[in-house]
Design goal:
The protein is α/β, with parallel strands linked by helices. Helices cover 34% and strands 32% of the residues.
């Protein structure tokens, strides 16, 4: 009855993300979360890198958006980026979700609370103990002052490289190539594949000087070295790479380049 009373006084139900690389543990945690009346929705992620991508999408959505996340229930020992690493990354965000650690290991509690964790729940997870962690998260979320919608750090984008999450500076990206539902980010140092459609990056980075030149390519105007016209075809030189410009985008690109040089 206490849980339902709290729910009635709560401004909204919590939107949760559970992160665990062991499938049975993840499924059990999701089952328990979905059974609690204070949880409005609960999704799962099988590793910290997937979780980071999901959290970035949540931050883009804003606190009232359809992809928002209020609290992350996070395992510690995972392959690649572990739970403590992810929690450290979240402390650098302007409005990170709350974190509850759910782990079989007792020895990391001090580090967890240093990272401002809401709670530290030991496996095997008991329903009553998880309910207490949810109560704490709900209380903190309800008490939080309104925070304006914001975008994630516009200067960096997370990429996965050999199981390690790194951050690429957007200004270093020369052009972007569509590869199905993915996009390949090209820099002078190499390229990185991210699971973001080209159309999403086009909208997100338009104000940062990225422009569509072809159905498969975005280019950063700052990195365009030459505009080439040859027998009715248009191309641009970006670093040492020549990219074709489609007819429908040629006029807009010329106008943007002219404004950049004369502005």
């Amino acid at each position: 009855m206490q849980a339902y009373e709290l729910l009635l006084h709560s401004t909204f139900m919590l939107r949760a993300l559970a992160v665990d690389d062991e499938k049975p543990s993840l499924e059990e945690l999701l089952y328990l979360l979905n059974a609690d009346p204070r949880i409005g929705s609960a999704e799962g992620a099988s590793d910290a890198t997937e979780a980071l991508r999901r959290i970035n999408r949540a931050l883009e959505s804003g606190p009232d958006g359809p992809d928002a996340i209020d609290v992350v229930f996070l395992d510690i020992h995972m392959a690649g980026l572990d739970g403590l690493d992810l929690a450290r990354l979240l402390t650098g965000f302007a409005r990170p979700p709350l974190v509850v650690f759910v782990t079989a290991h007792e020895g990391f509690a001090v580090q967890a609370f240093d990272l401002k964790a809401v709670d530290y729940v030991l496996k095997p997870v008991r329903r009553e103990r998880l309910a207490e962690a949810i109560r704490r998260a709900a209380q903190l979320r309800d008490a939080a002052p309104p925070i304006p919608v914001h975008e994630p750090d516009p200067d960096q984008i997370p990429v996965e490289l050999g199981g390690v999450t790194r951050f690429v500076t957007v200004d270093d990206i020369t052009h972007v190539e569509a590869q199905g539902d993915y996009a390949r980010l090209h820099t002078s140092q190499g390229s990185h594949l991210v699971r973001i459609p080209l159309s999403t990056l086009e909208e997100r980075w338009r104000a940062r000087g990225f422009v569509r030149i072809h159905r498969r390519h975005l280019v950063a105007l700052r990195h365009v070295g030459e505009l080439r016209l040859d027998a009715g075809t248009v191309s641009v030189l970006v670093g040492s790479v020549e990219l074709q410009v489609s007819r429908r985008h040629a006029r807009e690109l010329r106008d943007l380049l002219m404004r950049r040089t004369t502005g």
